[in-house]
Amino acid sequence: MSRAVDHTVSPAVAEEELLRAQVYGLLARLLARAPDAALLATLGDLAGEGGDFGAALDQLAGAARDSDPAAVEEEFTTLFIGVGGSERTPYGSFYLTGFLNEKPLAELRADMARLGIARADDVSEPEDHIAALCEMMAGLITGAFAPEEDGAVGLDAQRAFFDRHIGSWAGRFFADLEASPSARFYRAVGAVGRSFLAVEARAFDLAA
Amino acid sequence: MTRNAVKATDEAAKRNTDIQGSEKGLARRDLFRVAGLGVGALGAVAAGVTAASGTAEAAPAETTSTGYRETDHVRKVYEVSRF
């Protein structure tokens, strides 16, 4: 690109790539903590545009309209925090090995260091939490981890990260979330995540 | 206080950019369109997540012209990914 132009923003990332980043960002937000009333209201206005993913978005919108913040907060706690054991354990290491903090987490940390990503200072959860991984994908797509470098990580690097740290287990997690006895609102979040990851996997195959 | 789970390190590596406009890139774009990953479906998400953060960001512009639209998207995605 021409350096003669006064760039005050990052160069454009293609629209569909930004939409991917938005979905990852939304999943990260919903899996990090329960949505507040404002976010629920926004989600209630979503309208799918076809396909499994579109149907899942419609499901999420319906669930958001039927939910109140306090109930979703309680549901979130039961699903992910729960005293004496939560219903779901959204960590890659757990899904891949049956235990937390195993080799997959070490491998993730090595890749994060290589990509210029570190755990935020005020976070204590291991980095292989699904919300953190979704946040990383969003950042890799938009180049958020290297804004001064003008660039997003290419598809090859995105795919390598996805296959190694997300594709290998997160589909099962989202399917489990859909089937969780206590899940109501989060049943729809599971559907969105599962259908989105399926699209992602197909899209990476196309670009290979 | 930030709620991000991750942040960029100081030694962030140099990135290469995407495969925009190539045949494979177009096939990818078609797949996302068919799969329902559209601006219409998701346009509200970024704004909603942003607004819900309490940072009081403006709603996304309705315009579909080229140029600054993607700039807006970039900005919004940064905000979204800040969660």
From TrEMBL, chain A:
Keywords: Chaperone. SUPFAM superfamilies: TorD-like. Pfam families: Nitrate_red_del (PF02613). This is Chaperone TorD involved in molybdoenzyme TorA maturation. The lineage of its organism: Bacteria, Pseudomonadati, Pseudomonadota, Alphaproteobacteria, Rhodospirillales.
From TrEMBL, chain B:
Residues 1-23 are annotated as: Disordered. InterPro entries: Formate_DH_TAT-contain, TAT_signal. Coiled coil: none annotated. Residues 8-17 have a biased composition (Basic and acidic residues). This is Formate dehydrogenase region TAT target. It comes from Azospirillum oryzae. The lineage of its organism: Bacteria, Pseudomonadati, Pseudomonadota, Alphaproteobacteria, Rhodospirillales.
